[in-house]
Sequence to fold (255 residues):
Amino acid sequence: MVNLAIFSTKDAGLLSHIKIVLVETTHPGNIGAVARAMKNMTMTNLWLVAPKVFPSAEATARASGADDVLAAATVCQSLQEAIADCQLVIGASARCRTISWPEMTPRECARLCAVSGSYPSVAIVFGRENSGLKNHELDLCHYLLRIPCNAEYSSLNIAAAVQVVCYELFVAAGVQESIPVGDKGECPLATMAQMESFYAHLYEALTDIGFMHPDKSKSIMRRLRRIYNRSRLDTKELDILRGILRMSQDNQKSK
Fold:
């Protein structure tokens, strides 16, 4: 077994106990794409069983910044070696088998193994690009994972398959990534009193510009209320609308 880590990767927290295992990957670019898919979902525990070419500049290029996942990847020569310390092994395959195997979807897989309490070490195994897992490799797995997709075209690129599974794990683990960009939550939602004041102002402004007619004003205001109530305006948005109304009234008076 050769560990190619040249520095410690950041602990992936709730998902660090889950290995993504690739068996005999032919194209190094796919290894890089898998590393990228994993890092998107805060996963870093990558194992490679007898890859045809690794390390590789093509893998690094396709990783697009997930170089740390590649650097920490563990390379071994057999699937048995990769899963030796695991309590739960799940094999991913699109092919049906003559002898049926306990099956699960990515979502069911995530519910079972996203939290490390029951299974301290989990392996999710992906086979070769052209042929997937062999029967004797599936024999080492507790479950067969199949991704629901178009029955007439069920072939997924290995990185796409890993992305689907890692996303479900990410969601099931409840990983929260704070995004420091944007103004979400900075402005409180407008109160009912503020909204009623706005509706009175809106009615006044629409009357001033001649839009309102006595016989239709009630139905128009009801529809306008429905529009703005759906929007759930915050106080800053309400201030902007009130400013537009004031300007329209001022322009009307100056004519």
Observations:
- The longest helix spans residues 235-254.
